Each structure stands twice: as structure tokens, then as C-alpha cells.
């Protein structure tokens, strides 16, 4: 389908356009790249990892990349007041960057078909650039990172989005990456590498809806996009007449409602109230100090098999910076779910978010989805979070259900079910005090303001685009 | 002097008014309170502190208030790549709140004459409320905190400023307090307690210029005020005609220049660039693991007397929540200085700030003053920071010089010299890459955005109001 669009069409037009003369078929492109990728991913003992050393922590001999250490946690948020766990420490700030450019007037995004060894679907669409300083300074002696200069030497470029955002704060300590979208002028030639393709937002939406085709790093960057006038690559002149299905029309309208400066300030004040309500104290400790965890050459695991385990992975692949390597990964227990409950109030779609303390967050607490469930981490049904009953919502309430991967560069088989549930207008949701309804426009402004929305919620927001 | 002001005058008018029918003489009020305060502050051994325990860390038996622990630091910022030091850990978020109200149309601020045992000048003007949860939940069984309800139950109130801001990140780990200014309507009666007084901004400026009369907590809250239209208690209609001395006219104009949304985004992107450039890795350790520090009943001190020492303080006083108590305090080596270098460009005053890594910052790096010098922490002249030569600037360049106390509830005799230096228009300052010129308006917007400006720089900004 080729839709006629004006030269100056904005993000909304991009979400309705499924191809341009320069965009490939998104399914076929990904499948061709996946078929071409010669790869072999094997689980190995930790002591078989080249250049990794396990003592009081698990670390790379170079001192770079990341370490796995122990974390001692005390908090009055949630059912468990105190625990210890392994945690990934990676103080480096990586760049997750997408180049956007108008093609025939329609904003397109330069996506990379990228293999990540931990993903169930090995090859997925990633951001144009996804690199840590350890990568791009070539600690492992690999190839240079293509397109990095668009983000490192950005002076004079139009920066659509640029923010440090948190990542998986149950598994990482204080991890954040720089999320960037940089726009190049329509007449600037951008060479398109072999594994790269321009996609419209409509194509990306299709891939997101199918699940496990757009990786976590791309999803967090895309969550910075908004249908709000002025927040996308260009002001969108088409606010009146939005085609697409009824729910997407609601999404677009919600991006444009309830997000004034005053709304933003009120939400921030409410969030500070929540930060002051709950306590969190974390302390890095040695792996040997984790009472409930067993550390050995075959991996690091919970005595009762809860939460996750750390194992080794050996990778041989052609399409990454280096041909083959081995590394530790974190494999969560299966069954993780994130769900966003929505409702309409005065005709406007709102989503229910919660202020959630997580041990690895930089500032204690961020907004999370209505339900963020890690069943493998619970001691029993008494640990189930509030509103978990909405995971059993009747099928007609479900607006989105897909499986999405977490970062396959650090996590193994970490597939999270993503659910968006719209309750009927006469249905009343009884939520605790640390929950709050907001429009997608307000949630997007909070995402664009820094450490306010956690990565699981941002992933859901990207899937709703 | 009583200046005629219109009913709807704003912050600028308040800075020019030196009294109202309801404001006392600021000097006399403070001196009367100081004279009335019966107090006795004595240094005591750590093991003489009631309810405090020194083992691998120094802590209160209740588990509340704060602890002194060890911190192991690695960074590539500055001359020292790795060190260990004691650090104060206080995960609680306190409230620093000032009530503002128009009196005869002029915004006034409700200030408290407050004793803090560590201050050289024991009684100073503090915020209306200055309280940690340990205080206001009355862990030590003291009196309730007056005016707390204006900040804790703020629904429906006009919130002029509300932000979590960092504090002394060389001495505290991840410490932040909630800085608030709440406006009550002109016709709402606010009972004025014995130790409280309404002051105009002009009166506060006078006290700030004299030094050691407005405490650190009040200064950080006041740094959220701006002469920019719309940022103060009310839009200011007097932008055209600003009396006062020539430098203050420059200050007011600088609050109103170079601070558009685009300027703010550009500054934030530059700050993220700096965060990505430098590394910081901190780890809490036991006091016994600090090689260069000696811990004993008589205190915790550096073997060579550098940086600071931790000692005990016994306090008997009438005008605090409890009559007497004892606690540990941190006494820095004397001679600390913060200096802001200013210049005029195209007629607009700009200040030179630097992106500075400090071990206790929540997000690695914030903006600091041009020079932030702790001479007692240096190994020798080779550790002197860039631009330190401006501390010897000729007297005609000096716009402000005063001694200001740090938080006298935690620090002993911690007086920091505050300097503002304006270089001549034809003088060129050679600054490293992590330094940047900005207007006071932009710096104020960054202060209001969260963890962007450190407390030493905020204190200078407040002194320039």
C-alpha cells in the first residue's frame, strides 16, 4: 500500500505509510538477514569464558564491559523488606541512537538488523547505533561502529530526542543509556549499510505488533516519539483526521491531551511525594555474601531457583563487531509480564501507572506499568502485586498482546509478555495510592524528562505507537 | 526605606523593598534570637555520643538519621584516579520549604531563626521548614515541626518550586532534599511563630551579602527563584525599569536571557556529552577498609590531616525540636572557596560553570562553580583545579565576597568563601572543554529541572539574587 502524503507530513503520516520507494518489505528484509546469519550460540560454564574471571565478583580481565556483583537491598516498598541478589554493574553510558530522515516527505527511521545472542529470535530490528564505550572504543578489537559519528559529533544536527534513561533495575545497578534520535536533512545522503534499512513508523508498528522483531534498545528509543504536535520529527498538521483503527485513534488523541506544563509539574510533584514515602538502601557486596545464592563454575543461581541465573554463553557469528566471543548472561525465570490498564475518561484514553521502587534505579523510584510481574521471583501467592487480576481480563478488553525480548546482549531467553488492556467506561479500577492515571502525552513528556519512566513501561509505550 | 509598590508587584519588587508593615528589621530580629538562645556546644569523643555506635560504620541505635561509612571511589575526572574516604549516608529525603505570601502586594518569605550546632554563627535564617523524616516523625521524641503541613499536604496549594536537589557530594553519598516554595494567598492568615519572620527578598539579599546569616538550606531553596518572567511568585511587570546597582541590573537581565526551551535542550545535551566522557564507580565499604584514615573514639581522620575529620558534638539548646542531644559532625579542613567567573557578551552577563564529577552525586556529574577549591583535600600544588588563578583576581573585578556556612546540622565550622568575579569585556578566559558559559536564566532553569547544578553553585546563585 502506498499512501499519498504531503511533503511536510509528520510522524502520524509515517505511522500510516507502509512503504516508500526506499523502504524494503520489513518482514522479508529481516528474514533474509536472519537466514544469512551464520551463528552458533552455546551455553558454557562460567569458568570456560575466555577473559572472564569469577572470584568475589564476575569480571572481564580488561576491567571493562560489566561485572556481576552482589547487592544487599533494604526497602519498605513491596512485600519483601530485605534481600540480597546478584546484579549487573555497568557504569558506562552507551549510545542507543536512531537516525531519522524524510523520504518523499515521510519521516523514516534507519534500523539495523542485528543479532543478539540471548534473544529467542536472534536477529531483530535494532537502533541505528547500539554501542557502549567498550564497544566503540574497540576494547575487544572488533570493527568500528557504523553511523556512530551522527551521535558523537552531533553539533549542528537536529536532535529530536536525547535523554539518559534507566534500564532493567531488577537486574542492573544504576544502568542508564543515552537514548537519541537525530534527524538528517531530506537532501543529505546517508549511505545505507548492508544490514540497515529505512522503515516508516507504520512498518515499525507492524513489526512491534508481531512481537520479538524490534529489540529492547530500539523500543526504548522509540518511546521518546510522540504524536503530540511538535514532539515528532516535525509538527504534524494532520491532527484532525486520523485514520487507522479506533484504538490507535484513541492513542493519538491521548498523546495530545492532558500534558500541559502544569500537568507535567503536578505529576512531578506527585512523583516526589512517592519518592519521599518509600525508602531504599542498597549496598554492593561480594558474591560470596549472598546467603540464598550458589556461585560456582556452572553458574550463579538462587537456592530455590527463583528470579534468575547467571550462565556463560559462547557465540560465533558473522554479523557483529567481532566474529566470536563468550560472555556471561542473565537468564530470568520464564513468564514475565508487563501490562498497562487503560480507560477512557471524558473521551480521552488514560493509562494507569504506578510509582515503583526497584533496587537498581538511579533515583529510587520510577513510573512502571500497571502490572509488572516476575512470577519466578515470588515466594508465593502472598507476594503477588496489586491488580494482577487484570492479567486475566476478558479477551474483548485486550488491545495488544505480544512477546518482546529484553536486551539480548545481556539477557538470555528473556521474553516478556506485553499486554494493553482497556477496561469498559463503566468499570472502576481500585488502585492503591501510588498508582495514577495519566494520558500518553503526559507519560511521553515524563519519558523525555529523564529518570521518570522505567524501561518496561517505555517498552509498552513504544508498542502502542 | 519604604518603597511604593503596586499590589501585583513581583519578585523584582520584593528584592527592592527593605520592609513592609509586617516585616521586622532583619538584623535586629536575628540578633535578638541569637542573644536569647541558651546553648552550649562542645566537642566530645565519638564513644561519648549517646545512642551512637562505632564499628564498621558509625550509626544511631535506632537505625535512623544517618551513618558514616567508607566509600571507595574510582574516576577519570580530576588528578586522583582512585581513593577511599568516609562518607555520610542519609537515604532519607528531607523537606526544605519556604512559605511565600504577598504582604501589601510584595512577595515575602517566612524565615526561621534557627540554631545549628556546627555553624560558626550559631543562629541564622533558615527555611520555614527544614526537616528530615527522622525529625518530623519524631524519632528522637521532640516537638512537632511547625508549618510542616503546608508542604506535606500541599494539594490545592500553589507550588512555586518543588524539586529534589543534591547536597555536598564530596561528603554525602547520594544525598538529596526536597526543595519547595509554596505560596499562600494574600488573604490567608498564616500564624507567625516566635522564631519566625516575614522578610522581603531585599532583606534576604542584605543578609546574604553580609554572610553567615542565611543558612545553606535556605540558600538552596532560594536558588530556585528567578527574575525571569513567570518563574517567581508571579509574573513580574517591571522588566523594563530595574533600579539597584549596576551589577544587579545585569543579574536581572541575565535571568531573562538565553534560556529558551532550545537553550535548555542544548545545555542538557552538552551535559549528557560530559556524563558520557567521564567515568565514576563508587562502592560502600567498611570504615576499617579505609587505608589512609584512622578511626578511633577520638574521631575519624585522614593520616595526613587532609580533607576533613568526623568528631562528636554535644549540644544543649532551647530553640530546637529537642532540648539537648549529641551527634557526629564532619569538620572540613578550613579554606574552602567557591567562585563564579562572569563576563558580558553582547551586553548580557554570563557565568562560567563546569561539569564536575563528585563521588556522592546521584547521577555522576553536575554543574559546579568555575572554581570549587578544597585546599585541605589536595596532595600538593599539582592537584590545583583549572582557573584557580581567578581567586587572585584584582579587587575591581570582585562583585561579591562573603563567607557562608554549609549545613550546620552535619558540618562543623564549615565556612566557605563565596566569590563572584566579573572579568573585563576584553579579557579572554581559557577554560577546558568541560566548562561552559551560560546566563543565569539558563542556570536557573537547570536548577529547576533536578540534578543538574550542585549545591555549592546553587549557593552562589542565591547570593547573586
Automatic annotation (TrEMBL), chains A, B:
Residues 226-245 are annotated as: Disordered. InterPro entries: EvaA-like (IPR005212), EvaA-like_sf (IPR038153). One of its GO terms (molecular function) is lyase activity. Residues 27-225, 267-464 form the dTDP-4-dehydro-6-deoxy-alpha-D-glucopyranose 2,3-dehydratase domain. Transmembrane segments: none annotated. Pfam families: Hexose_dehydrat (PF03559). This is Oxidase EvaA. It comes from Kitasatospora viridis.
Amino acid at each position: 500500500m502506498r499512501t499519498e502524503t504531503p511533503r511536510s507530513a509528520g510522524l502520524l503520516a509515517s505511522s500510516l505509510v507502509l512503504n516508500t520507494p526506499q523502504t524494503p518489505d520489513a518482514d522479508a528484509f529481516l528474514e533474509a538477514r536472519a537466514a544469512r546469519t551464520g551463528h552458533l550460540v552455546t551455553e558454557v560454564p562460567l569458568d570456560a569464558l575466555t577473559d572472564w574471571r569469577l572470584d568475589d565478583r564476575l569480571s572481564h580481565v580488561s576491567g571493562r564491559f560489566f561485572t556481576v556483583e552482589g547487592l544487599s537491598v533494604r526497602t519498605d516498598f513491596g512485600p519483601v523488606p530485605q534481600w540480597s541478589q546478584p546484579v549487573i554493574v555497568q557504569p558506562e553510558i552507551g549510545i542507543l541512537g536512531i537516525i531519522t530522515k524524510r523520504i518523499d516527505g515521510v519521516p523514516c527511521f534507519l534500523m539495523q538488523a542485528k543479532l543478539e545472542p540471548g534473544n529467542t529470535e536472534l536477529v531483530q530490528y535494532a537502533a541505528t547505533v547500539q554501542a557502549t564505550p567498550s564497544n566503540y572504543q574497540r576494547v575487544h578489537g572488533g570493527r568500528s561502529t557504523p553511523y556512530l559519528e551522527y551521535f558523537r559529533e552531533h553539533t549542528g544536527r537536529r536532535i529530536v530526542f536525547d535523554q539518559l534513561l534507566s534500564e532493567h533495575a531488577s537486574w542492573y545497578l544504576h544502568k542508564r543509556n543515552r537514548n537519541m534520535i537525530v534527524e538528517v536533512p531530506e537532501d543529505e545522503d546517508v549511505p545505507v549499510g548492508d544490514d540497515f534499512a529505512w522503515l516508516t513508523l507504520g512498518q515499525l508498528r507492524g513489526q512491534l505488533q508481531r512481537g520479538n522483531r524490534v529489540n529492547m534498545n530500539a523500543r526504548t528509543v522509540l518511546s521518546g516519539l510522540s504524536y503530540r504536535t511538535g514532539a515528532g520529527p516535525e509538527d504534524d498538521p494532520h491532527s484532525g483526521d486520523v485514520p487507522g483503527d479506533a484504538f490507535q485513534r484513541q492513542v493519538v488523541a491521548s498523546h495530545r491531551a492532558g500534558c500541559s506544563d502544569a500537568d507535567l509539574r503536578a505529576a512531578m510533584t506527585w512523583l516526589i511525594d512517592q519518592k519521599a514515602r518509600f525508602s531504599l538502601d542498597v549496598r554492593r557486596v561480594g558474591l560470596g555474601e549472598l546467603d540464598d545464592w550458589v556461585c560456582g563454575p556452572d553458574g550463579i543461581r538462587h537456592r530455590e531457583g527463583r528470579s534468575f541465573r547467571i550462565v556463560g554463553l559462547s557465540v560465533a557469528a558473522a554479523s557483529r563487531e567481532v566474529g566470536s566471543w563468550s560472555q556471561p548472561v542473565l537468564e530470568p525465570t520464564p513468564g514475565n509480564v508487563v501490562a498497562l490498564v487503560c480507560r477512557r475518561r471524558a473521551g480521552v484514553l488514560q493509562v494507569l501507572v504506578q510509582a515503583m521502587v526497584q533496587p537498581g534505579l538511579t533515583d529510587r523510584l520510577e513510573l512502571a506499568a500497571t502490572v509488572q510481574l516476575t512470577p519466578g521471583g515470588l515466594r508465593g501467592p502472598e507476594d503477588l502485586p496489586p491488580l494482577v487480576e487484570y492479567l486475566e481480563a476478558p479477551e474483548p478488553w485486550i488491545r495488544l498482546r505480544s512477546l518482546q525480548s529484553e536486551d539480548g546482549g545481556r539477557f538470555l531467553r528473556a521474553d516478556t509478555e506485553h499486554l494493553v488492556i482497556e477496561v469498559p467506561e463503566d468499570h472502576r479500577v481500585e488502585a492503591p495510592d501510588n498508582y495514577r492515571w495519566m494520558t500518553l502525552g503526559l507519560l511521553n513528556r515524563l519519558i523525555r524528562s529523564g529518570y521518570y519512566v522505567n524501561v518496561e513501561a517505555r517498552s509498552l509505550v513504544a508498542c502502542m505507537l
